Amino acid sequence: MHALSTSSLLSIEALAGGVFLLTALGTVAARQLLTCFNLFVLQSFLLSASAALLGLALSSPHLLAVAAITLATKTVLIPWLLRKTVHGEVYRIREIDQVLNIPTSLLLALGLVGLAYFSVDFFGGVAVPAYSLVNLPIGVAVLLLGAFTLTVRREAVAQLLALLVAENGVFFAGITIVPNLPAIAELAAAVDIPVYTLVVGLLTRRIYSEMGTTMVGRLTALREE
Amino acid sequence: MLLAAILLVPVCTSLLVLAAPARRWSAEITILAMAVVLALALFAVQATLARGSLSAASGWLACDGLGALILGLVAFVAFTAAIYSRGYLHRRHPPQHRIEAAGSYYPLFNIFVASMLAVPLMANVALLWVALELTTLFSAFLVGFENTPEALEAAWKYAILTTLGAIIALLGVLILYWGTRVLGQEAFTWNELIAEAPAMPPSLVWPAFLLILIGFGTKVGLVPMHTWLPDAHSQAPSPICALLSGVETSTALYVILRLYSVLSRLPGSEAGPWFVVFGVLSVGVATILMVQVRDYKRMFAFSTVEHMGIILLAVGIGGADARFAAAYQITAHALAKSFCFFAAGLLVLALGEQRIASIQGLTRRAPVAALPFVAGALAITGMPPSAVFVSELLILKAGLARGQYLVVGFLALFIVLGFAAIMRHATRMTFGAGSGSRWTAGAPRTCLAALAITAVPLVIFGISMPPELAGLLRLAGAAMGR
């Protein structure tokens, strides 16, 4: 069997990048929390696939390790932790309540993607390989989309998923600009994110048991008057 | 070995007090452990003074002047907060819940302190990011410890917003790493970064700096990313507030100050204005919010935003004198602010109430809480003999010497306004007829001990400058710039 050529690996990677961006837009538009959840898992899988494809194309064992770590933590461990810690009914029935309506959100989200596209110009003067030109703007766009989703959602789990999406965006950009991050840092980050999910998941559970709701956006006891 | 021990002691203590048999004594064990950590940290400071910098664990751990300063302050406030916690928790929880409360409080307390101690010791910038993110993770449940709706709301905002900041900063850290890789460098340590800075492409360093300034600036509480800070710093138990406000903010600021020395080595770039603009903005907005604040713990939280702004501004002024004064301000703020939150904790114990408007006649109702409260308010607003007085004076002086009259004018104006705001609230609460019953229970002895221990360096550093401190501040200042 013929090994795939580097260029075809890279074009598959670019395709994965496009779908990766679409999943982030999907989390902006999705009404059901379960949809957001599934989109996050799909997105994490695409991140892992992208790292694996780049790892093969550049023959970088670092990136293959990143792909394996991402696959294990983000598509298996984190979804499992979220299921464990947060009450099941949250995923089933609720339509997400958000500050802006969905068409407006999507319009603003598209604006953010446009902004991210130009962000690469910041790095003018530095030789950027072609695959970075794909991953960098998409990563920045997904970071912005995650931050945006975080601000418009009121549901605790939706906010957490938005954060994880933003984090996926940073890693998507990161794998192309620093394909050789020290292994210890990769490992530490790999531990950090599931621990974070666990902490925030438990916090959500406590908020639910104390207040009977996970609509954290409706909590406004603390503010300046 | 020494540096590794500083991290291992609190980590092991955390595991120890997690074990059921040790829970009954977890307060005492933690005090003991923090005393050991403080002693080790002071050894490390001594060694850094003698040798300029330390390195351990084949270069993964390192400590220079700025790191030693932060390390010493974290260890000191952790020690006093551990002492304070014993009496505070005892009084806040009914006897049947005490062991249970201690069982969830002290493991988190120890591991939170360990993560803060790790920040100034991590030589690798990516690992530093991990350590800083861990400080949020381990303290989120401490912020929500009281389990009231307000405390949980504060913990939620804290965990979500500071992590969003950390994720933004992560992109900055990765771009910095990209910058070193462009030069063919493999190691990603601060020393490496500073040495390579002149050759690094500015088009990578600048975006990285801005992302880190916004990202970790969220954790520092810089305006306009400060919105979570007064919530978290007012809802956490008071000893945790002392740690959060006194030192956790400074550990995040530490990263931004380190970057200043990288930026100042870039050819033809001027980072000062960024620091001055963000500094003035934080000082101004925080001061105005202090005027109309309604909760005395929130008042001290806004004062933290103000002081972070002052430190940033001082570094932005530029020059060795200003950086020396900024290091002094970090020290004075850590001491004065932990004192203020310890004093505020006594008020919480005495009155069970945080609204300024409902408190009057403290001198009659709870004199033992009123005295430290007024002393703290005077100390944090920069009245002599508080160390804050000297550090703020040095910053103003350095600014004048650099000809930054406008900046100095703004700073002086806001310092005076901040003084007026805090003292207006404090006098209204302290004096006057006041209704309500007297506090008969009296202050827990460990709380008074923590206040007394904090007051000693706070006053000594305000009256005289021990040569060791001067040496450390000079080293720390040198680490912040060319």
Describe the protein in words.
The complex is a heterodimer of chains A (225) and B (482). Chain A is mainly alpha-helical. Chain A has one domain. Chain A contains eight helices and no strands. In chain A, helix 1 (6-29) runs parallel beside helix 6 (130-152) and helix 2 packs antiparallel against helix 3 (61-85). The radius of gyration of chain A is 18 Å and the shape is globular. The model of chain A has no long low-confidence stretch (mean pLDDT 86). Chain B has 482 residues and is an all-alpha fold. Chain B has three domains: 1-123; 154-266, no CATH class; 270-482, no CATH class. Chain B contains 19 helices and two strands. Chain B has a two-stranded antiparallel ribbon with strand order 1-2. In chain B, helix 3 packs antiparallel against helix 18 (445-463) and helix 5 runs antiparallel to helix 6. The two termini of chain B are 30 Å apart. The model of chain B has no long low-confidence stretch (mean pLDDT 94). At the A-B interface, helix 6, helix 7 and helix 8 of A face helix 5, helix 6, helix 8 and helix 9 of B.
Pick out its properties:
heterodimer, A: about 220 residues, 8 helices, about 0% strand, B: about 475 residues, mainly alpha, 3 domains, 19 helices
Helix and strand topology:
The complex is a heterodimer of chains A (225) and B (482).
Chain A: H1 6-29, H2 33-57, H3 61-85, H4 89-92, H5 102-119, H6 130-152, H7 156-177, H8 183-211
Chain B: H1 2-18, H2 26-51, E1 54-56, E2 61-63, H3 65-92, H4 95-121, H5 125-143, H6 149-182, H7 190-196, H8 202-220, H9 229-235, H10 238-263, H11 272-291, H12 296-317, H13 320-351, H14 362-365, H15 367-380, H16 387-401, H17 405-430, H18 445-463, H19 467-479
Antiparallel strand pairs in B: 1-2
Helix pairs in contact in B: 1-2, 1-4, 2-3, 2-4, 2-19, 3-4, 3-10, 3-13, 3-18, 3-19, 4-5, 4-10, 5-6, 5-10, 6-8, 6-9, 8-10, 9-10, 9-12, 10-12, 10-13, 11-12, 11-17, 12-13, 12-17, 13-15, 13-16, 13-18, 13-19, 15-17, 16-17, 16-18
